[in-house]
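Incident review: delayed structure delivery

Summary: a single-chain prediction request sat in the queue longer than the usual turnaround. Root cause was a stuck worker, restarted by the on-call engineer. No data loss occurred. The affected request and its eventual output are reproduced below so the record is complete for anyone auditing the incident later.

Affected input:
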Amino acid sequence: MTLQINSDEEKVDLLIDGDIYEEHAEFLRDMSFSYARRGIKKMDIQLNSTYYISLKGQQCLSIMRETLGRQGIQVAFKPNL
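Output delivered after worker restart:
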């Protein structure tokens, strides 16, 4: 998995290339929570050339989206998970 990050005070854009396994999803979750503590309001995650996401990776990303949503942060996956 490769990751490109563009961010400002309000928004984070992530471009992900490659398959996502549990350890990748855990990294994305931890990084997202770090951005949330800094006060971002929106996170767009673009999945590019991602053909496989492990079951545990999917579960981790779903929990991440739900947790951030409860904090008022909009998380959008493109294409949708």
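Verification: The chain has a mean pLDDT of 95.
Action items: add queue-age alerting; document worker restart procedure.
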